[in-house]
């Protein structure tokens, strides 16, 4: 006999409906056999909020249910008149309770409250981390250091030169010096002896380290065979490298500061067009007035000589008079302190002569100047520290031998609370990547000058 497809579909649908009806009746019979239900809610005894994921178990039964996000659970009460419930939760005290069934076949409702658990921990003393030793040698002192992408460059010396020729009076010179390169874990990677007498370490506008000696300078870099020293003439170092203090896209940033004139310019050199653009002129008005006023106190003959020299050089006679009288060596003479820093997308000139921070975008567009406050705070050391890695500037304050470093907000000029270094009277304080580095040797100790580091809070 041939089968009709439409009749087959009707037959299959009818059988499915019958199967669902049978299944429903079976479940209803099973539920009826379990008897009335226990419906409960669990809340926090302190805050009154529902507690979810509470394990609820009836003693003597293997089944465990969890409360939902509203703190609700449902359990079959069974045929007994009462049940023993056990409730447990990770953040609350374990609870046991006896629940009496309500009379009749209706559902029994119960409201339960769990007490928050209290965990007692042993007492812990929290102290600020102390300074860590970056480099220490049992024989050599640390004279200077610089931090760059290669690691930490340390200038070590066995002894300092205690006497100097008249032209070098007041300058520190190191003999029997060597250069040590440390990796980021402060492990020695390479060392190199330095010929002759050495003054200090510098960093150029790109952050590369340079060793300055008395008769020679060297640009240093880490090579496969160790430290490589590339010679640089001293006049090239001071005339063509150190005047450049930074760089922005398409421009070198530098200045024409000298130790014998109370004014100078910060400028940007267009490397493609070879043209210089003055960003800001720094002038100490009072010192400049004193410098030029020397002309008034000269004799008539000296004034004539100053005018003649000024005419030949194209310089104001009062400027010539200041140099003729040697005012640049006078105790009242000083060059204004106005460092420039490239801080991310901002160029900032901290002009302490007029008390304002002059700012520029890296495309050299001028931004509104900001009044400065840090130089009026007690303990100001006339020193700003530049954290190249974090693009920020910190002011240094010294009081009773303690050094405190306070960050400056370049958008407002305001000071943050800052951090006080652990050791008193530190030397050569520098800042890099959120840490303060400095040299220290305990007074009266046999310890050599050691390089330390502290995290700035």
How would you describe this protein?
Helices cover 15% and strands 43% of the residues. Strand 18 (251-255) and strand 19 (263-270) form a beta hairpin. Helix 4 packs across helix 5. Strands 3-2-5-6 form a 4-stranded antiparallel sheet, with no helix packed on it. The longest helix has 30 residues, at 5-34. It is elongated, with a radius of gyration of 40 Å. It is built from 5 helices and 31 strands. The protein has helices at 5-34, 234-241, 285-293, 300-313, 317-324; strands spanning 37-44, 55-58, 64-66, 72-76, 82-89, 92-100, 108-114, 132-135, 141-148, 151-160, 174-182, 188-193, 198-203, 209-213, 217-223, 226-232, 244-248, 251-255, 263-270, 275-283, 340-343, 346-351, 356-361, 366-371, 380-387, 392-399, 402-408, 419-420, 427-432, 435-440, 450-455. The model is unreliable at 13-33 (pLDDT under 50). With 457 residues, it is α+β, with helices and mostly antiparallel strands.
Kindly estimate the percentage of residues that lie in beta strands according to DSSP.
35-45%
Mean pLDDT: 87
Shape: elongated
What is the helical fraction, as a range of percent?
A: 10-25%
Strand order of the largest sheet: 3-2-5-6
Structural class, from helix and strand content?
alpha+beta
């Amino acid at each position: 006999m041939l089968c009709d497809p439409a009749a087959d579909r009707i037959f299959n649908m009818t059988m499915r409906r019958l199967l669902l009806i049978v299944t429903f009746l079976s479940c209803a019979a099973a539920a009826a056999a379990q008897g009335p239900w226990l419906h409960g809610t669990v809340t926090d005894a302190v805050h009154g909020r529902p507690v979810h994921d509470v394990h609820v178990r009836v003693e003597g039964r293997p089944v465990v249910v969890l409360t939902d996000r509203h703190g609700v659970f449902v359990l079959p009460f069974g045929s007994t008149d009462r049940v023993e419930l056990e409730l447990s939760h990770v953040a609350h005290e374990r609870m046991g309770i006896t629940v009496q069934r309500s009379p009749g076949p209706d559902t029994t409702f119960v409201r339960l409250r769990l007490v928050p658990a209290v965990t007692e921990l042993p007492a812990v003393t929290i102290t600020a981390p102390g300074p860590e030793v970056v480099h220490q040698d049992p024989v050599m002192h640390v004279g200077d250091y610089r931090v760059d992408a290669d690691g930490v460059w340390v200038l070590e010396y066995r002894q300092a030169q205690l006497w100097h020729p008249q032209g070098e009076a007041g300058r520190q010179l190191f003999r029997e010096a060597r250069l040590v390169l440390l990796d980021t874990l402060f492990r020695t990677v390479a060392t190199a002896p330095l010929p002759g007498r050495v003054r200090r370490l510098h960093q150029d506008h790109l952050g590369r380290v340079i060793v300055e000696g008395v008769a020679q300078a060297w640009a240093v870099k880490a090579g496969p065979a160790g430290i490589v020293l590339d010679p640089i003439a001293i006049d090239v170092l001071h005339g063509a490298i150190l005047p450049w203090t930074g760089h922005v896209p398409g421009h070198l940033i530098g200045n024409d500061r000298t130790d014998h004139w109370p004014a100078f310019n910060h400028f940007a050199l267009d490397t493609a067009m070879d043209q210089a653009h003055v960003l800001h002129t720094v002038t100490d008005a009072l010192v400049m007035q004193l410098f030029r006023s020397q002309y008034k106190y000269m004799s008539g003959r000296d004034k004539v000589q100053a005018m003649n020299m000024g005419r030949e050089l194209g310089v104001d006679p009062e400027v010539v008079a200041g140099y003729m009288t040697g005012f640049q060596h006078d105790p009242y003479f000083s060059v204004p302190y106005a460092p420039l820093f490239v801080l991310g997308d901002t160029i900032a000139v901290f002009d302490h002569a007029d008390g304002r921070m002059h700012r520029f975008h890296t495309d050299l567009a001028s931004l509104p100047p900001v009044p400065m406050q840090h130089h009026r705070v007690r303990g100001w050391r006339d020193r700003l520290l530049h954290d190249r890695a974090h693009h920020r500037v910190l002011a240094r304050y010294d009081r009773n031998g303690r050094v405190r470093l306070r960050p400056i907000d370049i958008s407002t000029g305001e000071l943050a609370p800052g951090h006080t270094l652990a050791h008193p009277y530190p030397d050569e304080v520098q800042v890099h990547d959120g840490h303060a580095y400095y040299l220290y040797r305990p007074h009266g100790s046999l310890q050599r000058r050691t390089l330390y580091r502290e995290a700035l809070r």
